[in-house]
Design goal:
CATH class of the largest domain in chain A: Alpha Beta
CATH architecture of the largest domain in chain C: 3-Layer(aba) Sandwich
Low-confidence stretches of chain C: none
CATH superfamily of the largest domain in chain C: Type I PLP-dependent aspartate aminotransferase-like (Major domain)
CATH architecture of the largest domain in chain A: 3-Layer(aba) Sandwich
Number of strands of chain A: 17
Low-confidence stretches of chain A: none
Largest sheet of chain C: 7 strands, mixed
Structural class of chain C: alpha/beta
Number of domains of chain A: 2
Bound molecules: pyridoxal-5'-phosphate
Strand order of the largest sheet of chain C: 1-7-6-5-4-2-3
Strand content of chain C: 5-15%
Helix content of chain A: 25-40%
CATH superfamily of the largest domain in chain A: Type I PLP-dependent aspartate aminotransferase-like (Major domain)
Radius of gyration of chain A: 25 Å
Largest interface: A-D, 195 and 194 residues
Oligomer: heterotetramer
Strand order of the largest sheet of chain A: 2-10-9-8-7-3-4
Number of domains of chain C: 3
Amino acid sequence: MLEQIGVDSIAALFEEIPAELRIGASPSIGPGEAMSEMAMLRWMGERAERDAGLVCFAGAGCYDHHVPAAVWDIAGRGEFMTAYTPYQAEASQGTLQLVFEYQSMMCALTAMDASNASVYDGASGLAEAILMAVRKAARKSRSRRVLMAETLHPHYRDAARNIVANQGVEIETLPMAGGRCELKRLPDDGAFAALVLQQPNFFGLLEDADRLTDWAKGHGAAVIGVVNPLTLSVLKPPGQWGESGADIACGDGQPLGAPMSSGGPSFGFICAKAPLTRQLPGRIIGQTEDAAGRVGYSLTLQAREQHIRRGKATSNICTNQGLLVTAAAVHMALMGAQGLAAAAAASRANTLRLVERLTAIDGVRPLFPGPFFHECALALPKPAPEVLDTLLDRGVLGGVSLAKHFPELGNALLVCATEKRSAEEIDTYAKALAEILR
Amino acid sequence: MLEQIGVDSIAALFEEIPAELRIGASPSIGPGEAMSEMAMLRWMGERAERDAGLVCFAGAGCYDHHVPAAVWDIAGRGEFMTAYTPYQAEASQGTLQLVFEYQSMMCALTAMDASNASVYDGASGLAEAILMAVRKAARKSRSRRVLMAETLHPHYRDAARNIVANQGVEIETLPMAGGRCELKRLPDDGAFAALVLQQPNFFGLLEDADRLTDWAKGHGAAVIGVVNPLTLSVLKPPGQWGESGADIACGDGQPLGAPMSSGGPSFGFICAKAPLTRQLPGRIIGQTEDAAGRVGYSLTLQAREQHIRRGKATSNICTNQGLLVTAAAVHMALMGAQGLAAAAAASRANTLRLVERLTAIDGVRPLFPGPFFHECALALPKPAPEVLDTLLDRGVLGGVSLAKHFPELGNALLVCATEKRSAEEIDTYAKALAEILR
Amino acid sequence: MSTIFDLSQPGRNAAAQCADLDGAALARLPEAALRAASPALPEVSELQAVRHYTNLSARNFSIDSQFYPLGSCTMKYNPRGAHRAASLSGFLGRHPLAPERASQGFMECLFALQEILKEVTGMAAVSLTPMAGAQGEFAGVAMIRAYHRARGDLERREILTPDAAHGTNPATAVMCGYTVREVAVDGNGDVDLDALKAAVGPQTAGLMMTNPSTCGVFERQAVQIAQVVHDAGGLLYYDGANLNAILGKVRPADMGFDVLHLNLHKTFATPHGGGGPGAGPVGVGERLLPHLPVPVVAQHEGGYRWLTEDDVPGTIGRLSAFAGNAGILLRALAYALMLGRTGMDRVSDFAVLNAAYLATRLKAAGFELAYPNRAATHEFILTLAAQAKAHGVSAMDFAKRLLDFGMHAPTTYFPLLVPECFLIEPTETECREELDRFVDAMIAIAEEAERDPEHLRTAPHNLPVGRLDDVKAARDLKLRWTPG
Amino acid sequence: MSTIFDLSQPGRNAAAQCADLDGAALARLPEAALRAASPALPEVSELQAVRHYTNLSARNFSIDSQFYPLGSCTMKYNPRGAHRAASLSGFLGRHPLAPERASQGFMECLFALQEILKEVTGMAAVSLTPMAGAQGEFAGVAMIRAYHRARGDLERREILTPDAAHGTNPATAVMCGYTVREVAVDGNGDVDLDALKAAVGPQTAGLMMTNPSTCGVFERQAVQIAQVVHDAGGLLYYDGANLNAILGKVRPADMGFDVLHLNLHKTFATPHGGGGPGAGPVGVGERLLPHLPVPVVAQHEGGYRWLTEDDVPGTIGRLSAFAGNAGILLRALAYALMLGRTGMDRVSDFAVLNAAYLATRLKAAGFELAYPNRAATHEFILTLAAQAKAHGVSAMDFAKRLLDFGMHAPTTYFPLLVPECFLIEPTETECREELDRFVDAMIAIAEEAERDPEHLRTAPHNLPVGRLDDVKAARDLKLRWTPG
Ligand SMILES: Cc1ncc(COP(=O)(O)O)c(C=O)c1O
Ligand SMILES: Cc1ncc(COP(=O)(O)O)c(C=O)c1O
């Protein structure tokens, strides 16, 4: 090959790089001796092993749900996993049709008109949703203020704020009482571009989504619902909240086929009512035809995207979380509405059992009244981080401490028991906690 | 559907079954309540977990080798895994070409002319090889006697005998001395249909395959070499033993991409010199063409097989171990001759290290003199089963006791350290053994 | 498509798979034992290997991609969950010779499977060790032989099979040292009882048959047949390949069988892997108990232990190096656990419903059933003799043309009794729409047979290769790649 | 092909995936919060779902099945071993909010990756949290913004980019509240230094560029550019999407860059998944250290801990719910471990060798290089303007026709500067024969363009669908399945 190129060494191919910049003959970068696949798997395996084996009662945006074996057997097929973004539609009908089907399923779950092909995750997706609403408001109220429920996942709040603040969007907080949005503190001053609420909220509690939506619509604000797609198999979809429904539904797709994976990769979804379709960020797949009238699919509304519109795009997103969407589509097809509802119901049943067992312990009580879905905040007689640490020794990941984000709530712990938790595991947790608190 | 069939219940479809035979309305067979996939995986997972976690120093026909991640990613593809035996050649070119390539690789490894598409395992495959030789002898010496090295894997000996004895084949033993075939006890009486020898033999030692082969050929007996395909990357292939080579090479393909899996599924291979091709049992793939001259592959020499020849077939085998052959072909393609040789050499190096460490312990010594490949029999100062049992508590599967099959060898233990064993693991074993024997 | 050898370039490799070759480790080996030249395996990069085999895989029909109604083979969907369960690292990483104490989880699984198979068959004991149906048959007939021998009954040299029997049956009998005598099947697919009576005698070691038979019908005289054979001092062997038709409905033991094998890869969830692996456990009644092949798992002091030759002195012994196709046994257990009590019954419900529906529709579409007076079981036979006569197209031509429609062909020319036959088994996991597509394709092909028979005779037309020349394959034997 | 919705039948399901629906658990929920009707998801059996998606997958080109020389995208083979490592159950089963004490194995991996990325880029610190290149760009530009703000330098409202820049660069600048000014690239693919000097000023917050540039050439004046921008008080952003061209050869820090992102999914082993996921870690020099996005892993008392907002008060904060695309980070680490010190260098060796070879051969075959005076880097640009003029065939026509040859097309119409362009990146993992096949195909298509240009204009001809109507897709918007 060198001969054909007309050089006598590979080094000669780099001669345009100014000599003073070149690292030199034997680069000392990188991690030491090359490992064979076998050695690497051993090294990584030892580390993976080190953290393994906890029974998980943590939720807070990432859930230990069952994923049918077929899901990743399919999503892991080379044809899906090693393809690129489907720019050449004719050579990418697999991905394109699958994402079209995914979009259809997400619209069904959320009762929205359009879905994109994913954003990075729930939190960054919320930022995109807010920017959509602000762009829409730019044509009317021109407001850059957004009202955000205090009961929203604190990481979502942070990430969204960190992203949208650069564009001068201001986030204000709708305070909570008893773990839910305090309706009577809905503000009366000025216009908001959007109201953001989470259902079930961060504490697992159900908001009065209907009234919140009606208030917002009455005040000219768009409604952004942050939702858990699994619960939508059972709960009223955002598109049907209140009189006219939310405008945007977003959230994290992790409960649809993604292992917890330390939080990533999962995927963010954004669905919208028709008037907001052209504000959506990222890829959108549309159905079309070839000259012979055969149905096919292709990237559409590309004029929203950075590769066409550059600085005028609706977002800078390019690479998204395609493979997780692939898994989600297969997951939803395998589970069906019935399977999702059963998983949601079983998660709720297990969490009810867990809460019952844990609150039977002296000093442990529900932090808030009212129905929760499949997560529940508990008040403990000791600091949560300390309790969690002791539980680790018994192989239990006991939940998520609220100490950092809600210090005002005292010794608060957020727990969750998905459909994967067995009665014995729940009882083991209760027994361990009882001993610790004795 | 029932309507179209013209019955009013599924039960009606079973009316031809005499009523007195029917189990009745609510069958009480089977394992209790149906489990969901999730529940089943939990149940099986708990049991899998129970036996897991031992560091493996056992060999004796089943080895803990590295399998490249790509091997089962490919072999596990639905198109390979869920296809049937390639009866419809045009719809099975994937499997057919792959097996053709596999046959070619096996011929290269063994220096033979033809390979079949697998038999069940090494032991039952040896039985088939013996029957091949006996059928061949039927045309000449008509001998049904087979001389079998005492240094052959005892399970192979048993299985082969159990199978061929039904056809009146007699197995005689060539005794060993110092763990290897005793050349001077090669018999002089009468004709043998075949000589069976294993290289490296059960104890990991190298036989004088050249002289054994020459003796057999000189006495009109076919030579059947039982070989470990991984070691053939380094060792002289059976097709080149002695003056004219062995006639049949067979063995277990487990070292080529199959996990240990409690011993199965792996696969047996049988390769033969050209004159024996038509004696091979099971599937054989041949290259051919379609009308347009395109190269294709199909099952060939089917007139040897039970589905055509019924009682006159060379064997009753039908289902074989196709998927493992698929994995083996991918494995060999990924490893190449170089990769296989490196794995073999590393296994040998590790076993050398292990033997050095273990024999440094008082009372532990090599049972036999002479070079071994990657397994070695050790003499212990205590009964091997007892030692192995104590080692389990330290997470070490210390090898295979020879007590049952070779009680005359005393407290003997067969050990093996593949390329997967790390220096630390080897040292851990040595340390544990030293403590146990202290 | 190029072979992997055509892609090979000297010196190329998948670097991450090559540990450094430790020449020193080999140095101490005797020169004469070493090979002179490296074996001519392909030398390719990891990408080349992955791409090559990925593309090869696309040249297969499979259950995951096509309807595959191959009669007698039970090409059904096998849940990925069962595959996952058997692939748990605790199972895959287990050495077969690990001590019992370190094998209790695995052994509990095998024991549970033994019990389940006993229940569904009604047999007294089960050994899981045979590695496929044919090895199960071998074990079964070898036990029959051992039984007669143990009784000093040495003159029984013959095994009977219906003439419609699967090829492995007679082949097995011969492997066990028997001669085979075939018994005719009548026009309704039942064994001809008179012929059977004439055939049995003091030379009869046993009879091998399956029920539903390979004719796709339930043998109604099973009990009478058993009577005849037993009266003659022979034993009855049940070939369990068709068990999915009667699971939860009838037990082979109740029909009078003394010994059987089950094809776990057919009835109990193992994808067929392009040829295997499978598992063919054997079950026996009391009479053959002493001869069961080893190893077998037994309960013992609250745990499990292996039964070996020492425990079962009359055993026909071990048939493989270890304990059989463990991974396939685990898949079968996983599947049985998911089916549960009620699911077993559902397997036969849907297997038979689908076959009956398909038979009804094909008959209505003008196709001729081989046994029109009989109810379909999990499979049924069509004879295309009329089409062959009228248009000169064979069942094979129909089969090849079906491939063009994106469906695998049914089994052709088996059983041999029925001319130009299609043995069709839709299986319990296909849905009605898929069956309807098959009927549509058959109708289309039948019309084409009238209009343009040559198009059938030269099919397939839409596959990577056209009809392959089997004669050339056997005549110009090319069984391995050679350069150039 | 039918959609999964077309296969749906009311009441059908994959039974093993449906736990019994525990109605009681839902009973205590307020009626108003519940949905009135079940969502209209498909109702199919497990086999139907598996078969449908298996068959859909066959309608994709992918690295595992085709050559895929998509410029700027680095469609290379990513070792399955890295995928396996990231799929270890200990990693997949880890909850993101597990306490540090129960996360040391995972955190050690992240820390190791941070260190490796620091070394290969020469930067002072790395944060792994951005979830793709574009989010990395966002983080980088947000840090530039935070830096100027922290210094009270509030008037810098502009980000510069070469006009050949990737679309995410200007889009990112806008997302960060900046306006974009484009700087021209000269006829040799280098930034026009005079234009740059004219463009910088007190309004300049920074310059974003990649090197090798999107023109497929190494920007030789990188140091001078840095000088100009720094002199104007701006900072330099390095878009690391092309790092595979210089890995082990040059460090971005040495070229004067203050901040960068890396596309781990391009340079460090993540298959692209039909659109993602990726990971876009950011590296910074000393100046931006206080603004690094959180979380970051730090060594602490012989172990590891998370740095959060409390530890990095000037941070731009978190950008996602947890710690980024952990699984992708693990793949990158696995890949780096397998490459080792010497392998890093080999990546750029072969990336550039392959591109140079392909450029040389295509040039020899009569194709026009966009920058004929320049050495190819890991990618290079062809302009098909001559063909377009002579035969009325566009680069897109060439691209579509290439698909018929079983190869994915290069990137078309990017960068926008070059008319009718192909941006070709063969990548480091392809072998010579594959490159030669591509050249052969290009020559064949060029001949065809003369002979039968219409055949190109209507390509592809061998794929499941012909050329799709993008205009119709946008005009008759159909974004989801509807019945009938
Ligand atoms: C009726 C019948 N009996 C026996 C067998 C043999 O089983 P196996 O292929 O597992 O050896 C088969 C398999 O095709 C069969 O269909
Ligand atoms: C030069 C360049 N910059 C930035 C990006 C954006 O990276 P990502 O797609 O990961 O967001 C890309 C990806 O296509 C690219 O090629």
